[in-house]
Design a protein that fits this description.
alpha/beta, 5-stranded mixed β-sheet, two-stranded parallel ribbon, 19% strand
Length: 249
């Protein structure tokens, strides 16, 4: 198979590790972490990459997104000439943990919980994640979209009302064994300690990314959107996303 793989650069180490071991021909594109802060803009960038793939002259078997819903950035994306494949995931924490069940266990009751990983800490300007770009309810609103509609102060109030947020004394560190770098882990631990909190290590897993780039797209784990259809949100912990016909113009 030949696959176009579009991923967030916080997953550069994990995607590269899996790509080096895949029997498929993979063309990789990594986008900056900071685009998560502006989900509508990230959606535009992703759609541009998908559309460019369609006119590239290369016969891909599919376009693979190493993204979850990510603040609704992937909702509304349209598969063009090739099928569009993505994990059934709310955000990249599912990919670092290796399962939907892991996401529900560690973040289901506190979706705005800050966290970090080796890859997340070394990209952009922040060591820790910003929960403001996560999707908070079944209607799919992210903090950025609420702020654009209601103003930042009201968005903060709504976000607090819609989540089970708690100011935890711990910061989860998602530790993927294949990309564990002791020097960087110590740097992260020191940074967290300097904020007055402690690091709580959660074992991660790489199996979802492995399956993505290998082309092993179990329907329960991955959404395959056929050409002409769009990605839609389900916002549960099982299906997460689905494919629908595009809205009438």
């Amino acid at each position: 198979m030949r696959l176009k793989v579009i991923a967030c650069n916080v997953l550069t180490r994990e995607v590269s590790w899996c790509a080096a071991r895949s029997s498929n021909t993979l063309d990789l594109v990594f986008l900056p972490k900071g685009e998560h802060d502006h989900p509508p803009r990230l959606r535009e960038i992703l759609q541009e990459e998908i559309d460019a793939t369609a006119i590239s002259g290369i016969a891909y078997d599919a376009v693979v997104l190493v993204y979850g819903i990510c603040g609704n950035a992937t909702i509304g994306l349209k598969a063009n000439t090739f099928p569009l494949v993505m994990p059934r995931a709310h955000d990249c924490t599912t990919l670092f943990l290796g399962s939907k069940e892991g996401f529900e266990e560690h973040f289901g009751k506190n979706p705005s919980q800050a966290w970090t990983s080796v890859g997340y800490s070394e990209r952009g300007d922040s060591f820790l994640s910003d929960g403001n770009t996560r999707t908070y309810d079944q209607n799919g609103f992210s903090f950025a979209e609420l702020a654009a509609t209601y103003g930042e102060e009201n968005a903060c109030y709504l976000m607090e009302a819609m989540t089970a947020h708690h100011d935890s004394p711990e910061v989860p560190f998602l530790d993927v064994p294949e990309t564990h770098v002791p020097e960087l882990v110590e740097k992260i631990k020191t940074y967290i300690a300097d904020t007055g909190k402690r690091m709580r290590t959660i074992p991660g897993g790489i199996r979802l990314i492995e399956a993505l780039v290998a082309g092993h797209w179990d329907e329960s784990l991955f959404l395959v959107t056929p050409p002409g259809s769009v990605v839609a949100g389900v916002y549960d912990y099982e299906q997460v996303v689905c494919a629908k016909s595009p809205p009438n113009p």
